[in-house]
Amino acid sequence: xxxxxxxxxxxxxxxxxxxxxxxxxxxxxxxxxxxxxxxxxxxxxxxxxxxxxxxxxxxxxxxxxxxxxxxxxxxxxxxxxxxxxxxxxxxxxxxxxxxxxxxxxxxxxxxxxxxxxxxxxxxxxxxxxxxxxxxxxxxxxxxxxxxxxxxxxxxxxxxxxxxxxxxxxxxxxxxxxxxxxxxxxxxxxxxxxxxxxxxxxxxxxxxxxxxxxxxxxxxxxxxxxxxxxxxxxxxxxxxxxxxxxxxxxxxxxxxxxxxxxxxxxxxxxxxxxxxxxxxxxxxxxxxxxxxxxxxxxxxxxxxxxxxxxxxxxxxxxxxxxxxxxxxxxxxxxxxxxxxxxxxxxxxxxxxxxxxxxxxxxxxxxxxxxxxxxxxxxxxxxxxxxxxxxxxxxxxxxxxxxxxxxxxxxxxxxxxxxx
Length: 418
What we know:
Blueprint: H1 2-35, E1 39-52, H2 68-74, E2 84-93, E3 118-121, E4 125-132, E5 138-139, E6 141-142, E7 168-169, E8 174-180, E9 194-200, H3 205-211, E10 214-220, E11 236-246, H4 253-260, H5 289-292, E12 294-298, E13 309-312, E14 317-323, E15 333-335, E16 340-342, E17 345-347, E18 358-363, E19 369-375, H6 378-382, E20 388-392, H7 408-413
Parallel strand pairs: 1-4, 3-10, 11-14, 13-20
Antiparallel strand pairs: 1-2, 4-8, 5-7, 6-9, 9-10, 11-12, 14-18, 15-19, 16-17, 19-20
């Protein structure tokens, strides 16, 4: 019996030894690939701006002056701030001297308040050098990618005395973040060639994000990226941050009150009227000082203001639809005129998205024209969460397209910092 068992035992031992030997070889291969990883470096600066939510000065979709809720959310009065607020935004620079701003590509002018796009391909390493030129501590917290504690950008107890341990950046200081783009950060089996994640300040996240410190990360599938990291099978990418920005909860709320009112003590901060501007009952939205500071925006714009998203009929374009913020930020984005595809399913209204979620939707528009794109929640539409997008015919020029415009005022306000 022992003689018969011996060859079998030797075979099992040999198999285990072979498997044990082959496993380190796989790890060695991964280590070698990691040593050749592409490093993409970005230079971002948190800076203060005076942001105009309606730089075109009218309800662009209707082509007329503001009335009703439009006036309630935009008009400056003795007890309303109106349409311009001090905010903080992320700007991109060319190098670590932070002396030359990197211009935003014309295709992305519609991004408004949203920070620069950080791009990478699966397997890359992202380095972000963040300079803080605001008056309060900020950070960069990324979603999706992998990081160590000092590149997390979120406050813990040890960050109270040593903010750099958590990736927090005091005013006037600089910090470098390192993020690894693991396979799980990239597109899954049912996704297209790229997906998006959010990044934002997470020192005190509610006030930081309502101040304006938020942006997008795009991760492209391995082998599918152009040199700049964008997906090579997509003609244009569009970013839409559906967000009710609560200026009552911004870092700059006190500044905005003092700047806009001669005697801030006379402002009724608790004013809430459960009526619409016409005097009808409207319990979910209503009017009043606090409500007037809650801006139902897409990319920081209201009532179709700002640069218009423009594409051409038959082009393969990609939308990254995002949201963030307070508990009212549950949105049902809806495209008029054309449909999108999400993981193989066609639709013109996305399933509800909530804070910090991102949906990637592809479109090949087949109907030219200027179309509405909005949140289908009634309160959000009334508050101005309804921009326009334009589909040019195949032989149509931008100049000849009726209704297509690029707002010079909207473009300029993002580069004017304090």
